[in-house]
Amino acid sequence: MTDFLPRYRLDTPEEMHDVISYIIKRSMKAAYNCEYDVPVFVHSVQYAQDVFDAIPVEKTAMEYGEKVEDALCKAWGDFYDSDGEYTSRGMIGDVYFKISELVEKQKEPTLRTVDRQEALECLREEMETLTHLASSSMQGDITDTLTTVKTDVKGESGVKYYIKMQFETSVDGQTLLNGSVFMESNYRHVLLKDCIIAES
């Protein structure tokens, strides 16, 4: 199953990092939900997390992804927990194979490329519209009325972008609007983010 993988080309090592981080978090959740040897499985995934965290986020998305893949392959071979002689390598192996799937998927020539400038323009337009509507039609603190808004919009290219916007109050009392763009309706992998001041 590859439903957890983005169906578009990752453009930067930071984007690759975020997807791998999602995979490891997903695996950690699965480890905690195991019916047996939970400490062993959690230890295994934490080892994968530690290996991943030690790798600099640099070069191209593919070079970074392959470096993480190689490091986790070695970690899978090295890891051992005596409390789970037959299960200790199970979860770290699962993490490794999922990341291998991700790297291989990114090599497919038919994978679509995303116009990030268009995506950002769509996000900013939606954020400005929401800020204007919220400021002119709502009484009191916006953050008391609206928390998260989800919508979708088509860019000039015809590509649909899924947008999530969330109001919050900063430490100095300003109302901020945080926005994120996703390429899929499950709102799983963030393509890019932006933040604006919603009101003075």
Task: Describe what you observe in this structure.
The protein is α+β, with helices and mostly antiparallel strands and 200 residues long. It folds into two domains: 13-106; 116-199, GSPII I/J protein-like (Pantoate--beta-alanine Ligase, Chain: A,domain 2). It has six helices and four strands, in the order ααααααββββ. It has helices at 13-32, 38-53, 61-78, 90-106, 116-137, 142-145; strands spanning 148-154, 160-169, 175-182, 190-199. The mean pLDDT is 88.
Instruction: Detail the poorly predicted runs.
Output: none
Q: What is the 3D shape?
A: globular
Based on secondary structure, the structural category is alpha+beta
Question: Biggest β-sheet, characterized?
Answer: 4 strands, antiparallel
Helical stretch tally: 6
**How would you describe the oligomerization state of the chains in this entry?**
single chain
Mean pLDDT: 88
The number of distinct β-strands equals 4
Gist of the model:
This protein is an alpha+beta fold and 200 residues long. The protein has helices spanning 13-32, 38-53, 61-78, 90-106, 116-137, 142-145, and strands spanning 148-154, 160-169, 175-182, 190-199.
List keywords for this structure.
single chain, about 200 residues, alpha+beta, Pantoate--beta-alanine Ligase, Chain: A,domain 2, 2 domains, 4-stranded antiparallel beta sheet, 6 helices
